[in-house]
Amino acid sequence: MTPIKKQSRHCHFCRVSSEAVDFKDTDTLHRYLSSFGKIVSRKRSGVCPWHQRKLAVAVKRARFMGLLPYAV
Description:
Layout lengths: L11 H4 L10 H5 L11 H4 L3 H17 L7
């Protein structure tokens, strides 16, 4: 019996070779929010650790500016 191999996900931001995650791009940021408005974990979203940190800061800035809700 062979072990089941997990399919590796590639970071969306690394694929498009994006250095910065823009807080004004709310369509992209909505992909990484749950239905309750929480930031989705790195395991579920498939984002690399470096971009996950940038993504969290961008979501927090967008919330502060009123572009994204804090809670639904």
